[in-house]
TrEMBL record:
Alphabetized UniProt keyword annotations: Cell membrane, Membrane, Transmembrane, Transmembrane helix, Transport
Name of the featured protein: Branched-chain amino acid transporter AzlC
Gene Ontology CC terms, in alphabetical order: plasma membrane
PANTHER family hit by this protein: INNER MEMBRANE PROTEIN YGAZ
Biological process terms in GO annotation: L-valine transmembrane transport
Family per record: Belongs to the AzlC family.
TM segment ranges: 17-35, 47-65, 71-96, 131-151, 163-181
Keyword Iron set for record: no
Species of origin: Thalassorhabdomicrobium marinisediminis
Superkingdom assignment: Bacteria
KW Transmembrane helix (keyword) present: yes
InterPro entries the record matches: Brnchd-chn_aa_trnsp_permease
Amino acid sequence: MTDAPLKSQYWSGFRQGLPFMLVVVPFGLLFGVVASESGFTPVQIMAFSSVVFAGASQFAALQLMVEDAPFLIVVATALAVNLRMAMYSASLAVWLGEAPLWKRALIAYVNVDQSYAVSVNRYEDRPQMSLAARIAFFFGAVTPICPVWVLATGVGIWVGDAIPEWMALDFAVPICFLAIIAPMMRTLAHMVAALVSIVLALALAGLPYNTGLLIAAIVAMIVGARVEVMSARRVPA
């Protein structure tokens, strides 16, 4: 089976990423509004969304900065929340690791939860895809996501309090992650890691500066990895 033309692969990825605009737009709007109300300047906010480029860790870091948390706590929390990107990179390396360095660097920069989810699912469903086809699909998937995130942040700064409360933009954060995570709960290790992270995050919610989140993330990854190893050992050779 031969690959479809690269343009077709790109637009296929674009169509896969397009539905995520429904959560990326309110997510970005919410960050723009919250950051603006927290006293950050428009330049600082746009730089935050353009350089850090990670919604969940941006919200976590923003909350801690507003609370005047120590610098190291802010950085550690943002890194812990975004640590999943290291795992995403390891997973994508299997499929995109032979790409030229500049392309890998660009992929690493624009890679987000949504682009990772749709791309890996496509690669696993169609392992015969060529490297060029995989890259085209990936960049197609991020096209309706990444620029829109930055644009939505800017609109959030601009409109500010004009957004009515009944719109409840904060719904976008949990729905976004549920939409990404739910289809990926394919193994026992995944489910155990998710359960451990939920239980610990709730149990340790009272710790200062969201350090409970750091502990929950680290323990969940260790437990998940351990379950993965034990499951692999049970598989007959």
